[in-house]
Design a protein that fits this description.
Blueprint (H helix, E strand, L loop, with lengths): L2 E4 L2 E4 L14 H10 L7 H17 L5 H8 L5 H5 L3 H7 L7 H8 L3
Antiparallel strand pairs: 1-2
Length: about 110
Amino acid sequence: MPTISVSNTRINVDDEGYLIDFQSWNETVARALAEREGLGELTKDRMDILQFMRDYYKRFNSFPIVQAVCKNLHQSKDCTYEQFPDPLKAWKVAGLPKPTTEVFALLRHNL
């Protein structure tokens, strides 16, 4: 099983880089995942998006509608796409499980 090294700790990820254990996520892990995905720095706005996605997923066991993320965070209506041009990378950096085929399709079509 692949791992990433975060502060002298090994974190398990699947073959595509999604966290195996949702609970192993923290901001340090997010930064390591973002670096691995080539996303650069996780600014406050980016981290707010990731945290909202995680909180939503914890509550509803579902990916939030992308536009709802921005509205709830009082950011521009396209904040998710501005901060994470590929929303699947945001999902991955947020430490959420690999999305289903249906979620992949919705995200790829910006719905």
